[in-house]
Amino acid sequence: MENTEYIRGSCERFCPDAEAKMRTQKKLLNFFEYKDGQKHVPGVLVKEFTRSAADAKVPKAKDMRTEHCLTKTIEYLLKDIFLDERKPYHLVYDFIFDRLRSVRREIVIQQYNARQTIRLIEPMIMFMAYSRYRLCEEPIDKFDPKICNQHLQECLNVVLCSYDELDEEGQTTSETKPTIREAERRYFIEALYQIFNLGTPEALVRGLMLPAQVRENENFKLAFNICLNYHQGNIYRVMKGLPKLPHIICAVAGAKLQTIRRLLLEIFTHAYNNKQLTVPAAYLLHLTLLEPQLLNEQCRHYSIAQTPDRKALHFIKSDFKSDVETIRVQRETFIDEKLSRVYLPEVLLLKKLWI
Amino acid sequence: MFGTVNNYLSGVLRAAEDYDGDNLGTLLSLRDVHVQNHNLYIAQPEKLVERMLKSPLDEVVGSHLKVLYYLAQEPPNYMDAYNHQAASCSAVVKLLQQLKDENWCLPLMYRVCLDLRYLAQACEKHCRGFTPGHILEKAADCMMACFRVCAADGRASEEETKRLGMMNLVNQLFKIYFRINKLHLCKPLIRAIDNCAFKESFPLPEQITYKYFVGRRAMFDSNYRMAVDDLSYAFTNCPDRFTSNKRLILIYLVPVKMLLGYLPRKSLLERYDLLLFHDLAVALKAGNVKKFDEIVHEQELVLIRSGIYLLVEKLKFIVYRNLFKKVFAIRRTHQLDMGDFLSALQFVGVTDVSLDETHCIIANLIYEGKIKGYISHAHNKLVVSKQNPFPPLILT
């Protein structure tokens, strides 16, 4: 379809003048929008998210940003603001999340084509995937993982549909062929989608139907095989595969780890079910990717007895508390290490994906 | 051989006056010969049609003629044709609502809905500018409107109720939902049919199709026993002359049955050109994990296209079980060394497996009830139950 019938933004600033004026006057600026160190001087403003409402006017061209400007906005948010350490990260997240949401809204209003949409949304996926992990231990009033998951899934769906659209177009015209860079980015996002939807048949079906070049990509294969092993019930291979995943995808896997561990422990209470016998803790530490004190926590939580020296576990089927909630997602040392080895703004903007 | 528009319209009128739903359906079908009649390609047929037919039948027919007009363009304008077919479908809904305590027009509804689906498929194939599956989903919404009218017709007698049309529509909706991979939408439809007091009185062909889809859905929900029941019903009742349909049913029935421990007969597979399952069954029976993996890998595309890849992958743990059962048969003891299982895996050619993984595989088999016993980590032994250590799969 032609794009001419939709309004095209003409604003080259992160925040259109009208909104900037209004918010400055009414003192509605966010902390990150004041000039550094000065309380009342406006700095760089970024367009806020507002819902479409019946009483709101259709946005004019000058109230919307150009594609170039949207790209710059995302870069500014995911680099300058992302690295701003003056406030705790959950506030940074709130600010970036809101401003990215307004970018997403403009993508919809301006009806960008598949390729433009992909470029703009991919970094948002990375940002939410990372934040989901980074903030997983925050209390609910500071960070709501459910909302974050919803938006992440939504963005993933938009991007995946756009990939499919390009695939279809690619069959008829050759000019839409993706560049190597674009292809690499796609492999990464497809792999991320698989891990984010671990355990759902829909994702596996998608994985099976993807074009050969995606399916043959090493990183995608790694992620897909983890999901396939999970589907088969081979938890061993799932746990062995997870630490091999690259940074952000590994962080997404982090959100699934507690569920997998619980399943593993439950399987073991059936398999090693015996009052006399024990299973060495070292074996479990190695399989569950846990540190000793965290294994103790798991044992307490699911009611698995330990020997007094905590070197071994008694698995008794009837003792396992199958009705308690799964332990909350935690930050994992091996994931933190992976993340500490990369320069995050570059990764979030998908400029440098594989080390 | 083709008449004028007026001939056509009086044919429609006669069919309607005779309460002849089948004939009316044919006259509005896109697969009927009248479709080739150039006299019927009219861009604005409203005036003509209104003169002959009452509302809302005039709308049904008027939209149909517009569909013919757009399909006759070079190249065919599928998108506009679809939109007018959808309008025709909405008019059918009005017609259904108007005809209280009568169901003779059900064949008309079937036909219009069927063509709506075909046109939606054509749009998906030839047109651009929407997310894949969107038009099919919209078509499903139109059919749902028909379905609601039918399902709500509870007062009419059993012979005259429009509820008899439910299963035909449900089957059409299934076809769409399976195609666009939205299986969760099937659930309310199944419930509606299940709650139907006379579900046995739907025509047999419809029941067969219905069971085929319900069985497939149960399969995706990992509800294998139900899947076997439904698919077996479909297979047994489907007449032998429909070989390709029977083959389609078998593609799902065979692997689900394998999961429950039934292996298919070779002669049956031969008859339906499904020997791929024979190879899988041989490897499965022998517990040859490596061979099994190889076949799955070789036949990957076939399995994916048939939509059973994930199911076949689930068979892998049964291959493990069969292999381990052989170890038990050789050792003839209830305390089995875990190393023996590892050796067995290596013997059939699995090279990248460790003792830890062997432990985990057996642990999972015990958890699923496929092996009765427990593992002693300290002695590195699997202690199996004296009774039925490898219970038949149907019991697990």
The percent range for helix content of chain B is 55-70%
Envelope shape of chain A: globular
Sheet-strand content of chain B, in percent, reads under 5%
The ordered H/E elements of chain A are: HHHHHHHHHHHEHHEEHH
C-alpha geometry of chain B: elongated
Mean pLDDT of chain B: 92
First CA to last CA of chain A: what distance?
A: 39 Å
Greatest chain-chain contact: A-B, 35 and 30 residues
Task: Describe the fold and architecture.
The complex is a heterodimer of chains A (355) and B (396). Chain A has 355 residues and is mainly alpha-helical. Chain A has helices at 17-25, 67-81, 89-109, 114-134, 145-172, 180-196, 201-209, 212-215, 218-232, 235-241, 247-271, 281-288, 292-302, 333-340, 344-348, and strands spanning 279-280, 305-306, 312-314. In chain A, a hairpin with a 5-residue loop joins strand 2 (305-306) and strand 3 (312-314). The longest helix of chain A is centred in the middle third of the chain and has 28 residues, at 145-172. Chain B is mainly α and 396 residues long. Chain B has three domains: 5-179; 203-314, no CATH class; 316-395, Arc Repressor Mutant, subunit A (Orthogonal Bundle). Chain B has 20 helices and three strands. In chain B, a hairpin with a 4-residue loop joins strand 2 (373-376) and strand 3. In chain B, helix 8 runs parallel beside helix 10, helix 11 (224-237) packs antiparallel against helix 12 and helix 14 packs parallel to helix 18 (316-331). Chain B starts with a helix and ends in a 12-residue tail after the last strand. In chain B, 41% of the residues are buried. At the A-B interface, helix 5, helix 7, helix 9, helix 10 and helix 11 of A face helix 17, helix 20 and strand 2 of B.
